[in-house]
Predict the 3D structure of the following.
Amino acid sequence: MTGRTLIRGGLVITASDEIHADVLIEDGRIAALAASGTPAAEAFGAEHVIDATGKYVIPGGVDAHTHMELPFGGTFASDTFETGTRAAAWGGTTTIVDFAVQSVGHTLREGLDAWHAKAEGNCAIDYGFHMIVSDVNQETLKEMDLLVEEGVTSFKQFMAYPGVFYSDDGQILRAMQRAAGNGGLIMMHAENGIAIDVLVEQALARGETDPRHHGEVRKALLEAEATHRAIRLAQVAGAPLYVVHVSATEAVAELARARDEGLNVFGETCPQYLFLSTDNLAEPDFQGAKYVCSTPLRPKEHQAALWRGLRTNDLQVVSTDHCPFCFVGQKELGRGDFSKIPNGLPGVENRMDLLHQAVVDGRISRRRWIEIACATPARMFGLYPKKGTIAPGADADVVIYDPHAEQVMSAETHHMNVDYSAYEGKRVTGCVETVLSRGELVIDQREYTGHAGHGVYTPRSTCQYLN
């Protein structure tokens, strides 16, 4: 929609405010907020008026951790940039930051170019990229400086997956030192992959091949150990650190301790760790394979520490790590050997609703919902205030959210390109009704009106939390 749009009568919720206000949109941006029903709104002369009476008006979600079309274990994540960004929009997310992959023996630039080619012209919503660094050498380190300059300001390393993405402590330290100099943010998959591989080998030798053993070998202590090691390496390098998909009580404790020491250390968790557990991994008839991801699901008692971390700000962001593989033909690759199950599960469409359910349940406040799902990821990855808030000058990425509508999550009704839902049958209160991306209707009253190619690549500034 070109011209002017007025969203009237809703409760505008941002990370800092809840106000009854009309939102005025012009040329794809928020032009102003006006007290509901004031002359300012009437005089705006909007061509399009959206009635949000009784609804929330919230910023579009920012999912800072997705893997569309990711190659893994001899197959590919089942969502393309087209299907994945469409599903994100259905779930009230209007920006994703996906991971471009450097393969060993190749340059960062080759990896980044390949991901640009996958995404360009195919996305329903705006997108940016992080860079997975799999091969640290002198050329890679120089390239990191260039990428930061052009808006790829975060780099992910893995302490897991030896032989694929793994970096040793020396490689990690070198990359962290480079980030300390160029303003980049190192994102860490913190699990001791060398030790885990020993435990995997031993479990398989004992005939422990079912999906539940995936969770048992990837021990919480090995997540905590790697988290501690990453924090200390970052401290030595003088670099900030963002630990992805934190799942365990002991890992949260490491982050809390580092933050208490005043270190620039940040943590992310994901809905699967907040709402699912090893009970799911243990589902019979190989159904547990649907829930194989890394870090793995933990016993239920870990959930309390994650919710507490979100309330105390020892964890700052909830992203999805959306990396779907169909049960039929993909997850089934690991029948008889859990280590062959592709790691990842679908969630990009479910995050905003699951976190709203947490508001309904009294776990977090409405503003904290917006903070962990929209504002903080935008600030963390250099997209704020263009993304993540409703304020004059921001992109008009806006969701009209019905806080009273009830829905049942199911593969029958979701829009992700995967044959199961991780939350099958879960009842939640709250539903996305209308979504605008840069002022354009992508979802209109629960109808998809968007199109591939509307979403544009969005370069990012550096992390906005660094002192």
In short: Residues 220-237 form the longest helix (18 residues). The chain has a mean pLDDT of 97. The radius of gyration is 21 Å. The CA atoms of residues 258 and 265 lie 7 Å apart.
